[in-house]
Amino acid sequence: MKKNEPLTKIMSTGLQTIHDGEPVSKLRAMFESGGIHHIPVVSGEKLIGIVSWSDFVRISFGEFGNQTSKSLDQTLDHLYKVHDVMVADCVTIEKSSTIRDAARLLGSHSFHSLPVVEGDKLVGIVTSTDLIQYLADQ
To answer: pTM value?
Structure first.
């Protein structure tokens, strides 16, 4: 890995985000249609949390697993809001950081994505998959 390669080289910027007041059924639809595993939660442009596919699965399948999508959505929307599912105060990385900085953060924690911020504004995301692809391309 090149020592000072900018994070912007591998981060994704075309993000799908959700607001904390949205229904949980919107999360399900986003995960199912988008091929994504991490959805940043925003208030305006400010990052306030993140929801991973694992966070969503934790609340949605247990006792509700045999329902149709429509009845599952109704049940989840009745029981939860996005802010109940998200991880607040998530670890972030500044846009000016390096790929090495991201690798160190992801390697020292048990999560697989880092929202990229400028101040408190969300500008991208980098995942462990992005890092693996970067290394494979070296």
So the answer is: 0.83
